[in-house]
């Protein structure tokens, strides 16, 4: 997300918005203020809060909030540059450049909100502190305050903002911790390893994205079922949930144990 932010920060503030829309009904989540209210205004730049991008107007009256989820893409097209024919959302700037938003797949989960600054504050209130730079001390407090499995805690934006499913997998493998480890049972040394892995993995991801690396070059564990762990060579294993899949190294992370899909094993018992 930070790579997106840096890429878009300058171009979106270069020109005022000439035309706002059209927007797909499933993508634009708000109707008041109307999208047209953006026309004639200029963005100040792009800010990031967790996995959300915020584009405030330079008059301080409106904020465009974009949540890409997993399949959303936001692209800036220079004047004359060709883009998708029917993006889910489009902004045209004076001079002809455009900001276009697309979402792959049938499930429309990503979204765009046009908000007043007060509404934006309300939307963001429930977000936890930024994961990057959280530090061992603060992380220890968070882990002690929540009794749950580590993978689920890392992905919870109300607890820590900015880590998705893929990076939760990468971070836990780098920290050599089980996705099923209970947060309250972590030793101070394990929390320290986790805090260091959060920073190093998010920084690694950012650097690779900025160089334009594709997903399969970026990830070491995520979606790497059966491929050798980069630390020990053990084939990467997975455990499925309804909405996501956890990938991990059974040697580095779980002491050789294969994690069970708990819903399924409960049914079979
Ligand atoms: Zn390993």
Which range does the strand content fall in?
15-25%
How do the strands line up in the largest sheet? 1-6-7-5
- How far the N terminus sits from the C terminus, by CA atoms, comes to 42 Å
Oligomeric assembly: single chain
Q: Spans with pLDDT under 50 lasting ≥5 residues?
A: none
Major sheet attributes? 4 strands, antiparallel
Helix percent reads 25-40%
Radius of gyration of CA atoms, rounded to a whole number: 20 Å
Compressed to H and E, one letter per element, the order equals HEEEEEEEEHHHHHHEEH
Explained architecture:
By secondary structure, this protein is of the alpha+beta class. 29% of the residues lie in helices and 19% in strands. The structure holds zinc ion. Zinc ion (ZN) binds at residues 229, 231-232, 234, 249, 251-252. The site of zinc ion has 7 residues, from loops.
SSE map:
Layout lengths: L1 H8 L7 E7 L23 E3 L2 E5 L6 E5 L4 E6 L11 E5 L4 E6 L7 E5 L1 H8 L11 H10 L4 H6 L9 H11 L12 H23 L4 H4 L18 E4 L4 E4 L13 H7 L1
Antiparallel strand pairs: 1-6, 2-3, 3-4, 4-8, 5-7, 6-7, 9-10
Helix pairs in contact: 1-6, 3-6, 5-6
This protein binds zinc ion.
The site of zinc ion has 7 residues, from loops.
Summarize the structure.
This protein has 269 residues and is an alpha+beta fold. The protein has helices spanning 2-9, 117-124, 136-145, 150-155, 165-175, 188-210, 215-218, 262-268; strands at residues 17-23, 47-49, 52-56, 63-67, 72-77, 89-93, 98-103, 111-115, 237-240, 245-248.
């Amino acid at each position: 997300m930070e790579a997106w932010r840096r890429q878009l920060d300058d171009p979106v503030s270069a020109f005022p918005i000439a035309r706002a829309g059209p927007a797909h009904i499933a993508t634009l989540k708000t109707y008041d203020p109307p999208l047209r209210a953006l026309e004639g205004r200029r963005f100040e730049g792009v800010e990031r809060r967790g996995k959300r991008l915020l584009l405030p107007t330079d008059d301080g009256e409106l904020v465009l909030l974009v949540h890409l989820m997993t399949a959303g893409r936001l692209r800036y097209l220079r004047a004359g540059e060709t883009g998708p024919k029917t993006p889910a959302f489009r902004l045209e700037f004076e001079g002809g450049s455009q900001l276009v938003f697309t979402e792959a797949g049938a499930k429309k989960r990503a979204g765009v909100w046009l908000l007043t600054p007060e509404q934006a504050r309300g939307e963001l209130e429930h977000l936890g502190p930024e994961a990057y730079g959280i530090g061992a001390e603060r992380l220890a407090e968070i882990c002690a305050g929540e009794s749950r499995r580590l993978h689920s805690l890392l992905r919870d934006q109300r607890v820590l903002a900015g880590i998705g499913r893929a990076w939760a997998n990468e971070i836990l493998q780098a920290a050599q911790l089980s996705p099923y480890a209970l947060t309250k049972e972590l030793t101070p040394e394990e929390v320290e390893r986790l805090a260091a892995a959060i920073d190093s993995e998010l920084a690694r991801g950012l650097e690779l994205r900025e160089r334009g690396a594709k997903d399969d070059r970026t990830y070491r564990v995520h979606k790497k079922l059966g491929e050798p762990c980069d630390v020990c060579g053990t084939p990467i294993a997975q455990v499925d949930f309804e909405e996501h899949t956890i990938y991990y190294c059974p040697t580095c992370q779980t002491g050789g144990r294969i994690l069970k899909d708990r819903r399924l094993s409960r049914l079979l018992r």
